[in-house]
Each structure stands twice: as structure tokens, then as C-alpha cells.
């Protein structure tokens, strides 16, 4: 049988954990934004890698990882798109070259089905953050006719967890 603790004094030490988790996410996001701004100002370190992807596909290229951080460059060929998904960790991304589309979804009921609620083109220089504590079901795509390059910084250890993706979803018909 589960019992809730009603004693405020007993609960007080735990209530600080939520604030700590949010501050860790926000600190990570602020630092990741700063790194991405540096790369936007001078994208040579990433763009000199001559990143490419086959038609209709995207590729991930590992850039950096230490403990709880993983950074990846994505090359988006025209027509490429991720599955609809969400993340188990903070994610901050920027567009270094070209244009990508970010689409957002909401769950239909309790299952894996979602419906589109909005999309926006993200041009060179755009920086966005996704927090795992909020609904962040989305899909990235290249709906244009030229290669696009993005950089994503995730708050996870790639040696422990294979991907930042928590769950994939199906589009409602």
C-alpha cells in the first residue's frame, strides 16, 4: 500500500529537487546556446567537415561528448525528415546552413498517436531549446531543395544511452 507523506517538514527536502532539476536544465540550455552562437558566428569547424546525406535522408555526425553532453552535426538532404519523437534529455539545436522545418505535435489520447499542431521554418542562425520536463513532441525536416546543416547539443551520455530520443509517435490519420 502506498501512502502519501502529509508532514510538510518530511517533504521539504525533496521539494527542492524539482527546482534543482529545472535549474540544471536551464544552466545546460544557457551554456549550449552560447556554444551554438559561437558556431553560428564561425561555422568553419563544422562546415569544413564536408557533411553530406543521400537524397531524402539525414545523417548524424558525432562532434563531441563528455559525461552528460553529446554534440552532433546533422546533414539534411532535401526531403529528409526524422520520425515524430520526443526526448528524455534537454536538447538545444541551431541551424548553421540552409533551412529546416520544425513541426510540433500533441498526443491524441494516451497512446502513440499524435496530431500536427504547428510548423515553422528555421533559417540559418536560429537556436531553439527543448526541455524534457515539457511536452516536446516534434519532427525536423528539410522541405527545401538544398542541403541543410544543424548542430544539436543533448544532455545525455552517448556511452550509456544510444540516443536522445525517448519515444517515437505515429501521425493520426
CATH topology: Jelly Rolls
Low confidence ranges: 1-22
The share of residues in extended strands comes to 35-45%
**Category from helices, strands and their pairing:** alpha+beta
Order of helices and strands: HHEEEEEEEEEE
Number of helices: 2
Mean pLDDT: 81
C-alpha-based Rg, rounded: 18 Å
Largest sheet, order of strands side by side? 1-2-9-4-7
The fourth-level CATH homologous superfamily is Jelly Rolls
- Distance between the amino and carboxyl termini: 41 Å
Any idea how many domains?
Answer: 1
Major β-sheet annotation: 5 strands, antiparallel
Describe this structure in words.
This protein has 173 residues and is of the alpha+beta class. The chain has one domain: Jelly Rolls (Sandwich). The chain is 22% helix and 40% strand. It contains 2 helices and 10 strands; from the N terminus they run ααββββββββββ. Strands 1-2-9-4-7 form a 5-stranded antiparallel beta sheet, covered by helices on one side. A 5-stranded mixed beta sheet has the order 3-10-6-5-8, with no helix packed on it. The model is unreliable at 1-22 (pLDDT under 50).
